[in-house]
Design brief:
The structure is a homodimer. By secondary structure, chain A is α+β, with helices and mostly antiparallel strands. In chain A, 35% of the residues lie in helices and 21% in strands. Chain A has 17 helices and 19 strands. In chain A, the strands form four sheets. In chain A, strands 12, 13, 14, 15, 16, 17, 18 and 19 form an eight-stranded antiparallel β-sheet that branches. Chain A has a five-stranded antiparallel β-sheet with strand order 5-6-10-8-9, sandwiched between helices. A four-stranded mixed β-sheet of chain A has the order 1-2-4-3. In chain A, a hairpin with a 4-residue loop joins strand 8 and strand 9. In chain A, helix 1 packs antiparallel against helix 3, helix 9 crosses helix 12 and helix 13 runs antiparallel to helix 15. The longest helix of chain A has 15 residues. The mean pLDDT of chain A is 96. The interface between A and B is large, with 90 and 90 residues.
């Protein structure tokens, strides 16, 4: 206890007493994830305002032998930002909340870079870029509260990866407080730098287990000046993959989103989200929301997309489709896509799989997984949608209508096993863009080779020998 | 000696006696780099034909406590694939030449991936992709002999990075024999995979110091169907950066190359390379070779580029320019660009700097570096060219015409120091795309922070605790 009191005093000295929370009520929002799946315990929550303060906090935690859980907007889906319960470190854990570190440090227009602190909300970075006449392309449903630090630590993806890449591809430099409290200043704005191991890529996607990211240099892009959005019905997932191939073949990088949406996903949105309606008259098993963008305003993308779709209509892949005639029509179809998770939440409990596959194996996966699950849990509703252009499916399950929650949840381990075994057999990944966190920490051992697990543990031991950085996550 | 003889016997068992070279004459080509700057010594050269053979070689070297130097096409510029002299390992080093491992293992058209062995020559991968109707975009002067393994280990760049990224961005998966002889099978063809530390990015650019890359899954792209190539004169490097900004603003990713070429670089090519001629009538201090490409054949890129350049002519940045009217005209201007290094080699000895900067600092760098060097070595000829769109300059120096070689070379350390100090002060990198190897192994210590050097050494110790992987390179 006196150790803890001493640590609280040191932390209060570092960040100011107002930024150390110890009351249960004050701490509560930091100790559970937003889906309510995990509840953790922590000695306190500390909210630093600068890199120097973070470094001092890490030093203090080293001195007190206390572990740290970095947290941003707390929008993660795998419990990676929630402390463990019981604590995974003998002397306990503190939550280090980065949201006070929310400065845009610099924008360099000629270099097309923006330097931001880890606590910046993604949407505010998008807005700062737009105000400077540039695009920061990372875009995902939680962008109004997710922070850049979390985006980096989970290598966030979202709906524009097809064109612009994951968070990893959007990052040129990092500033990180390492496990020993030293600051690694890797805030470089360089497209080419071959001077040693790429520490940046090691820290990105490490879920806070190797160090605490405090700032980043991110890439900016020219703002698109033309856009065409379509909602089309396709005959099958294989048809969607075929269509994607032909679209990219003629339109290249202009294909900036290509999202597949199964009928049951659309149905949930239409049922639960007010003011939504189906874009097409008939009901189809599969639809694709696709978007082309171009910096060139003179290319008449809408007209071109219409031509392309008309040409496709004879081929058997495309069953029907509509090109948005206005920004509000485009917003309306995006609204359908962005509300799937919310609609599924309203419908009731769900089992989620955030998986990826080689694009060439997606159709086979869906066909085989559907069959397996129908046998295992008759009546189960498969809510399948995702970023098919990146091979990333959200293969989610809602319970059969008469089934009760307990029975459904009791079946989760078997269902997860079935889905993930199939993903693995087809060369895929059991976590495409959400990370491992607490949710898949144990399960990943089934699928990673011993060599790879050993390599990961060697790196963890080398960079965080005392195990103070986000223990119990990922490894 | 008997230890060595034993090792030779074991290696001959693994790869067959024909693939172990011990004669000085047989070994000679493997013991020097192509520029002839480094000469190393090795116990033998071994040429495995499969991943299993590489794994067995690494195990044998562990048993014999002998170090390994991986080598591909031997086209590196920093001595990274040449053994050290004296050997940096007490029991000596062997060269492991990967060029027999040159199979294209698979092409997946729907997934847009190609799986290749490390010994494949870059050009043969480009050709295999083209034969399948796809583009593998990595392109560099040495592509006719450089291998994929070397491209990966140095994170190669080249002339299309602006659009498609470095080798790092082009790679989805790796197969690597780790330092203990175990094979890490990370040959995944996934765009999204967030299941732990990104080992792939750690191995790429590691110059063979962490493991021996045996195969990779690489990204493929649609083939461009339209292309426009121009050679333009600009008033200054700052004008080139401005022009690039406006081009990307309207053309986006279509800008696939943007190469700056100083007058002295062009002059050397015109003097030494047969059948070359200046594309423009007047002599200008700076020119840019730029290229737009598009998958869409209907966009009339040539016409658009002409329009854009005409509009620029009034603005002060652009002084003159010509758009290639045919593929042979395009080849002719690319020929000027690709022969700069060769022309400089014919001219005589040179001091090279492969540096990168934030694009916003390039003009300032050139102005300040030119001034400093003119003071230091009057009459020195600065041969400056490079991938300005990536912030990457080849800031090379040829001796003053009356100066003798010894005097010039004696000045190299001071000149390097001056150039690299300025690069560092402006937030740049002293090795943009060639790596550190032996050439910059010591110098990098001046510019990397102690924290970063410590992190790199921790990783090296964790993954190669016995120091058997390419000792004396990078670290």
């Amino acid at each position: 206890v006196s150790d803890s009191l001493n640590l609280f005093a040191v932390l209060a000295d570092i960040v100011g007493p107002a930024h150390v929370h110890r009351d249960a009520g004050d701490m509560a929002p930091f100790l559970t994830d937003w889906r309510g799946r995990y509840r953790g315990q922590a000695l306190c929550v500390v909210r630093p305002g600068s890199t120097e303060e973070v470094a001092a906090i890490v030093a203090a935690c080293n001195a007190a032998d206390v572990a740290m859980v970095p947290q941003g907007g707390n929008t993660g889906l795998v419990g990676g930002a929630t402390p463990c319960s019981p604590s995974r470190h003998a002397r306990g854990e503190i939550v280090v909340c980065l949201t006070r570190m929310n400065r845009i440090r610099a924008i360099d227009l000629d270099n097309n870079t923006i330097t931001v602190e880890a606590g910046c909300i993604l949407q505010s970075v998008q807005e700062a870029a737009a105000a400077a006449g540039r695009l920061f392309p990372l875009s995902l449903a939680a962008e109004g509260s997710a922070t850049i630090g979390g985006n980096l630590s989970t290598n966030a993806g979202g709906v524009q990866v097809l064109r612009y890449g994951n968070m990893r591809e959007l990052t040129l430099g990092l500033e990180v407080v390492m496990a020993d409290g030293r600051v690694w200043d890797g805030l470089r704005g360089l497209r080419k730098d071959n001077t040693g191991y790429d520490l940046k890529h090691l820290l990105i996607g490490a879920e806070g287990t190797l160090g605490l990211i405090t700032a980043a240099v991110l890439k900016l892009f020219p703002l698109p000046r033309d856009k065409a959005t379509a909602w089309v019905a396709v005959s099958s997932p294989a048809a969607a993959v075929e269509l994607l191939g032909r679209l990219r073949d003629t339109c290249g990088e202009r294909v900036s989103a290509f999202e597949i949406i199964g009928q049951s996903a659309l149905g949930l949105v239409l049922r639960h989200i007010p003011q939504t309606r189906a874009p097409l008259a008939a009901v189809h098993p599969w639809q694709v929301l696709l978007e082309l963008t171009d910096m060139d305003a003179a290319g008449n993308l809408n007209g071109r997309l219409e031509q392309l779709l008309v040409r496709e209509m004879g081929g058997g892949c495309l069953l029907d489709g509509v090109v948005a005639k206005s920004e509000s029509q485009a917003q309306a179809v995006w609204n359908l896509r962005e509300n799937i998770s919310e609609a599924q939440r309203i419908e009731g409990i769900s089992i989620k799989h955030d998986i990826s596959l080689p694009i060439s194996r997606i159709a086979e996966f869906i066909a085989r997984a559907d069959l397996l699950l129908e046998k295992q849990m008759p009546g189960l509703r498969i809510v399948c949608f995702g970023h098919i252009g990146d091979g990333n499916l959200h293969y989610n399950l809602s319970k059969a209508l008469p089934q009760d929650n307990d029975e459904f949840i009791a079946g989760q381990p078997a269902v997860n096993r079935m889905v993930h075994d199939l993903v693995h057999a087809l060369g895929g990944s059991i976590s495409a863009e959400h990370g491992l966190g607490q949710l898949k920490r144990d399960e990943i051992r089934r699928y990673k080779s011993q060599v790879e697990l050993d390599l990961m543990r060697s790196i963890k031991s080398a960079l965080d020998p005392r195990g103070l950085m986000n223990p119990g996550k990922m490894l």
